[in-house]
Design brief:
The complex is a heterodimer of chains A (260) and B (361).
Chain A: H1 3-28, H2 45-52, H3 54-87, H4 93-101, H5 108-121, H6 128-153, H7 156-164, H8 169-197, H9 201-206, H10 214-224, H11 228-258
Helix pairs in contact in A: 1-11, 2-11, 3-6, 3-8, 6-8, 7-8, 8-11, 10-11
Chain B: E1 8-17, E2 20-30, E3 35-39, H1 46-54, E4 61-66, E5 69-70, E6 81-84, H2 96-105, H3 111-124, H4 140-152, E7 158-162, H5 170-187, E8 190-195, H6 198-204, E9 207-212, E10 215-220, H7 222-227, H8 232-237, E11 241-251, E12 255-261, E13 264-269, E14 279-285, E15 290-292, E16 302-313, E17 317-324, E18 327-334, E19 345-350, E20 356-357
Parallel strand pairs in B: 3-8, 3-9, 6-7, 7-8
Antiparallel strand pairs in B: 1-2, 1-4, 4-5, 9-10, 11-12, 11-14, 12-13, 14-20, 15-19, 16-17, 16-19, 17-18
The chains are: A mainly alpha (260), B alpha+beta (361).
The complex binds adenosine-5'-diphosphate and magnesium ion (MG).
Adenosine-5'-diphosphate binds next to strand 2 and helix 1 of chain B.
């Protein structure tokens, strides 16, 4: 295959991957009731409908809450775990490291069933806390990986210098380690947020009856009918899960440049 | 028992990492205000000793005393030490001012005094007015000066420096060497300096501690360590020297006659060690041996006939390997016009006072 062939092939692959997404976004601005091309007219009415649909608003609130708490909890634990794993030696260290990162490698269905069985064994019903625990479980490995990578890059002498100058371990952490870790912490928060926000497979297993997140809500709506509202909701999801990391990246670059 | 301010004593200090014995029962005393250097090849345990004094490693055995008080159990942040690393270790996210003032913050120094002391410290390292810069905006040499300012501004009991000059290029290194020594004198601060560079050690120290494989081989003033090596290792590690087996032929009070090999005899000062044995190990520094085509009128000096076997031309000097009988002697000679050539016949002059018996420091 020549260079041109490869280029054409690559273009096709990308087209195949992104065309459906583009169609969803385009159709969400379509004024017609039934999604079809060519688009009849530009309209925001499907987005309006979203706000008037109580079920969707509730699902949105649930997702947002879930994602925010997941981000904060898994980032906090991720930082602590990374420090223990990178800066200290203790028996069973490599086992714990493997266990923490394992959820990345296990299919979500397996993870979903696994946690349910575990809860069954504990005689716990499905509940919001269980769902939250599950999301933390899924996003923690990403935080640990990102923070660990950064922590390895922060030379230990900075901390040793701070200690020698009279700061105790905790003061050293907040004066030196934490600020130097900031980019990784930021990235970890975003990772955890988006992973929780757009998770569907495991969420279907874990959510208590009657609770919907945005992805499960879309899934539920799709089973009944294909309404243009779904396109609008899909567009909102795309904007949030793609837009937030992009915005954060831009902000990070801006602040990095603004420094003296 | 309170000793003089800033005096440090290591008593039979040892450190093992698993099966590796990094430091083996080292005794060392740093007088208050003195400059002591740990010198030795890479991996001989210098950094480990320094880190134990700092409190970054715990000794496996032995005691560390500062001002007569045992500090083994004192955590690093309560030890009041100044630490300077090879790679500067300035906090990259803090300005020069915040770096230097860092230690003062944890000593509850008022803002005004803090500002004044930082300015003084920057003055001392000849970088006044640099307060608002970030470390990334400084050259390597400047960063190391700021690191020094940060370490001394807290008025530590001991200043610990781990190869602080080895990341700098050669010219800057020599300049910093002089300056560092000057600052140390000015502040009169007890200093422990670690290096693998013998020039640095000899140029800066009051006391040089030569280390090998975790052990202290010899401790003493630079001239003594250089001229009177206590072991083959020290003789070999410092400069170029000839390590020779010698047989004692005869001795009167002043000089001792020695046979190096069949028919090659030299006279040594009897004061240069203990000649009581029939067999001794002799050290003669390469630059102490004279090399010329002819020597006139010796007064007790030994003149040996030799042939140049190898020449290492160094510009101002040359290092020769000269065959004398079945001996091969290293000789460093200044060059007049051109160096001696391979195969040329030369005469070597060895003065009695330069023949030192090993182990008689
Ligand atoms: N944290 C450590 N863990 C294991 N071995 C170490 C550690 N630190 C130093 N060592 C070993 O101890 C010996 C001395 O090291 P070091 O004090 O750094 O030597 P130097 O500073 O003279 O080059 C070396 O063999 C080194 O590998
Ligand atoms: Mg070292």
């Amino acid at each position: 295959m020549g260079n041109a062939g490869i280029r054409a092939f690559t273009t096709l692959v990308y087209l195949f991957m992104f065309a459906p997404i583009a169609v969803v976004v385009l159709l969400s601005f379509n004024s017609a009731q039934f999604g079809s091309f060519p688009i009849e007219g530009f309209s925001l009415k499907w987005f309006e409908e979203l706000f008037n649909n109580a079920a969707i608003v509730r699902a949105f609130q649930t997702s947002l809450w879930l994602a925010i708490v997941t981000a904060i909890v898994s980032t906090t634990f991720g930082i602590l775990a990374s420090i223990a794993l990178v800066r200290y030696d203790f028996p069973g260290k490599s086992w714990i490291n493997t266990l923490l990162v394992a959820p990345v490698l296990i299919p979500e269905t397996v993870l979903g069933v696994g946690l349910l069985l575990f809860m069954l064994w504990l005689s716990q019903p499905r509940s919001l806390p269980v769902l939250m625990l599950g999301h933390i479980l899924i996003s923690l490995p990403y935080v640990v990986l990102v923070v660990q990578a950064r922590l390895v890059g922060i030379r230990r002498v900075y901390e040793e210098a701070a200690l020698s100058l009279g700061a105790n371990r905790i003061q050293t952490f907040f004066a030196i380690t934490f600020p130097l870790l900031m980019p990784a912490i930021f990235a970890g928060l975003l990772f955890a947020f988006t992973i929780s926000f757009d998770n569907i497979t495991a969420t279907i297993f874990w959510r208590p009856p009657g609770t919907e997140t945005v992805p499960t809500q879309i899934y539920g709506m799709l089973r009944n009918s294909i309404s243009p509202e779904i396109n609008a909701l899909g567009t909102v999801m795309i904007v949030i899960t793609v837009g937030i990391p992009l915005l954060a990246g831009a902000l990070a670059r801006y602040f990095a440049r603004a420094k003296p | 028992m309170a000793g003089p301010a800033g005096a440090v004593e290591l008593r039979r200090i040892s450190k093992s990492f698993g099966s590796v014995q990094a430091v083996k029962s080292v005794d060392l005393t740093l007088d208050a205000g003195s400059f002591t250097t740990l010198l030795g090849p890479s991996g001989c345990g210098k950094t480990t000793i320094l880190r134990m004094v700092a409190g970054l490693e715990t000794p496996s055995d032995g005691e560390i005393l500062v001002n007569g008080n045992r500090i083994n159990e004192v955590p690093i942040h309560k030890r009041n030490i100044g630490l300077v690393f090879q790679n500067y270790a300035l906090f990259p996210h803090k300005s020069v001012f915040d770096n230097v003032a860092f230690g003062l913050k944890y000593r509850d120094v008022p803002k005004e005094e803090s500002r004044r002391r930082v300015a003084q410290a920057l003055e001392l390292v000849r970088l006044p007015g640099m307060e608002s810069r970030l470390p990334s905006q400084l050259s390597g040499g400047q960063q190391q000066r700021i690191a020094l300012a940060r370490a001394v501004v807290i008025q530590p009991d001991v200043l610990l420096l781990d190869e602080p000059l080895s990341a700098l290029d050669a010219n800057l290194r020599e300049e910093m060497r002089v300056e560092l020594k000057k600052i140390q004198r000015e502040l009169n601060i007890t200093t422990l300096f670690v290096t693998h560079d013998q020039e640095e050690a000899l140029a800066m120290s009051d006391t040089v501690v030569v280390m090998s494989e975790g052990e202290s081989e010899q401790q003493g003033p630079p001239e003594e360590v250089y001229n009177r090596p206590a072991s083959a290792f020290v003789a070999d590690f410092l400069g170029y020297s000839n390590l020779l087996e010698a047989r004692v032929l005869a001795s009167n009070g002043a000089t001792t006659a020695l046979e190096l090999t069949d028919g090659v005899n030299v006279n040594a000062d009897s004061a240069n060690g203990h000649f009581g044995h029939a067999q001794v190990k002799l050290v003669i520094r390469a630059e102490k041996i004279g090399i010329a085509s002819e020597w006139d009128g010796s007064n007790g000096d030994s003149i040996l006939d030799g042939t140049v076997a190898d020449v290492d031309y160094l510009g101002v000097t040359a290092r020769y390997f000269v065959k004398v009988g079945d001996l091969r002697l290293q000789v460093i000679g200044t060059i007049d016009e051109h160096p001696f050539r391979e195969g040329e016949a030369v005469k070597l002059r060895i003065r009695p006072r330069d023949c030192v018996v090993l182990g008689s420091a």
